[in-house]
Amino acid sequence: MFRVLVIDDEEHVRDTLVKLLAKHCPQVNVTGTADGVKSGIKSIRELNPDIVLLDIQMNDGTGFDLLAACSPLDFKVIFITAYDQFALQAFRFSAVDYLLKPVNPELLAEAVHRAGQMIQEHFNLQIQALEENLKSIRSQQKKIIIKTTENIHLLDIKNIISCESDSSYTLIHTADGDKIMVSKPLKEYDDLLAGCGFYRVHKSHLINLLHIKRFERQDGGSIVLTNDLKVPVASRKRDEMIELLERMAD
């Protein structure tokens, strides 16, 4: 049985979450609620929860203020937020669970289940990435969490040179010379990095436009990246790629 604490400055939100947890999450016990940063810190220290449902913006500060005061964290966090789509992208990059208000009962149950399985030592890295992403929501300074069976990598997006499909896996090439194999398909990174200066030049290759070294016309066309990796350009992408390069040079 997991101990759950609900922290939100809106009483009706707290009441709704408590009712939803009781109905849809039989594996948890709601040990208490709090209405802000100060009361939340006090409740965490007194109740020692396993999972905290945490609002981002509250009357006396933010959820990040609370987490900083409670560091190092020994509980799991599910953010409750009314953030717009750009902020939600930052949450995705950071691999942190969030729920949009009004909270969907099924999504709440799924998030609580994931929180119960989360390896806690990973969470401080995720919070660091999330804070930086939210501060630079539309910049190229975003970070992304990459998990493998052996390591958790916190990467600057600008240092990712390319992502290469390897069946149902993806090989990530970085500016530091690292090659990170991840058990996720390329499409997932294509979606995740949309709007961050990446371009799918081929069904097997997603490249960072900042790392293009040159375009070679022979053999149907290929891109040479800053790590000297040569990436083929799909025939249907050739003209589009040339036009894109010309626009980048303007």
Structural description of this entry:
By secondary structure, the chain is of the alpha/beta class. It has two domains: about 130 residues, Rossmann fold (3-Layer(aba) Sandwich); about 90 residues, OB fold (Dihydrolipoamide Acetyltransferase, E2P), CATH 2.40.50.1020. The protein has eight helices and 17 strands. The strands form five sheets. The chain has a five-stranded parallel beta sheet, with helices on both faces. Strands 12-11-10-14-13 form a five-stranded antiparallel beta sheet, covered by helices on one side. Helix 4 packs antiparallel against helix 6. The termini are far apart. The model has no long low-confidence stretch (mean pLDDT about 85).
CATH homologous superfamily heading of the largest domain: Response regulator
What shape does the CA trace take?
elongated
Name the helix and strand elements from N-terminus to C-terminus, one letter apiece: EHEHEEEHEHEHHEEEEEHEEEEEH
Tell me the Rg in angstroms: 21 Å
Give the neighbour order of strands across the main sheet.
Answer: 2-1-3-6-7
Separation of the first and last Cα atoms = 60 Å
Number of domains: 2
Q: Based on the structure given, which CATH architecture of the largest domain is correct?
A: 3-Layer(aba) Sandwich
> What proportion of the residues is helical, as a percent range?
25-40%
Which structural class is indicated by helix and strand composition?
A: alpha/beta
How would a crystallographer describe the biggest sheet? 5 strands, parallel
Got a strand count?
Answer: 17
> Low-confidence spans: pLDDT under 50, at least 5 residues?
none
Beta-strand content: 25-35%
Tally of helical runs:
8
